[in-house]
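Exam revision sheet. Question 4 asks you to relate a sequence to its structure. Input first:
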Amino acid sequence: MRPGLTIIPIILGFLISSTTLRATEIPQSIDQAAVESILKEAAEKGFEGIVGISDEDGIFYLRAYGDAVKGVTPYDEGTLADIASITKQFTGAAILKLREQGKLKLDDRLDRFFMDIPADKAAITIHQLLTHTAGMPAPGSIGRDEEAIGRDDYLRRLFAAPLQHRPGTVHEYSNEGYSLLAAIIELASGLSYESYLFENIWKPAGMYHTGYSRPDWSGHSIPEIEKPVAGLVSQKQLLDSTQGQFWHLMGNGGLLSTVGDMLIWHRALLGADILNEESKKLLFAPHVSEGEEGFYYGYGWAIEPGHPAGSLVWHNGGSYFSRAEFWRLPKSGYGIFIATHTDAVEPYFTADALARLMGGSKKER
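Answer key, structure tokens:
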């Protein structure tokens, strides 16, 4: 995953135009000039996208850069972001919510949910899927994101494909494993993946601008890449083209959201109204090493206990159409969300610089 409301006029000197959408009540301990310097450097390198910073009280810094659709539509607060693999944390949260509701256990095996599952996959557990230790088939071996495929056909392909590793022995990042978790969410809840998340996570948190197809996207601008991939220029266009049959993405990527909703999610995770404290401990626990010293994986989250910013939980995402970073500093209460649809700037480094700047800050106004 590592590389690997007052409108203020355009600020002169940036090669990419920027609009400050919100910059009020910034905590006194945060050096605003240093924040501006970090973002100015990104803008001068061609960054186009959205940057938001929040604490438990709400967003206190929000800035948009450049165009979502070149020469047509500028980025703004309502611009949709394809959050790509950041989707996985919502899948992890949904699994833990189902656990709270008594509908599944983390050590449940796949043969509890799927009849006639091949013997090599029957003993795989939910915990192994969440931590990418299930030994899932090779990335991309099931098909491409833009292929229309329903749940049953997807599962047939997945179960027929050979495992890469014996379950529980190797951590290897797997989109397929999280789509399998999405199927478990549907079977355990009796709802579609998106409906379960809306009713149990997004709606209670106040997130009405997050989803695949459930929200009304008509009032939102949608970033478009300049060079189409498979004839497609946006994640929404891909989702629409499959007519709801997008199981290559379900639960592992492709969710659309806004900077506002993502930072609402950050604040929801600071409390215990959506997930209880036990669930949050499981969500953010360093369950397995990612293979590099100091880097661990939780349930849909990357965990860095020794980051210079302090204990850090984060995830990023990349797709044909976007790159996004979602970073949380639980001890100081700050959250950072960055999204772009171009490859001019790697947003990881911008998020990292902001996190290092704010990691030692107190929440004093």
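Marking note for examiners. Residues 4-15 have pLDDT under 50 and may be disordered.
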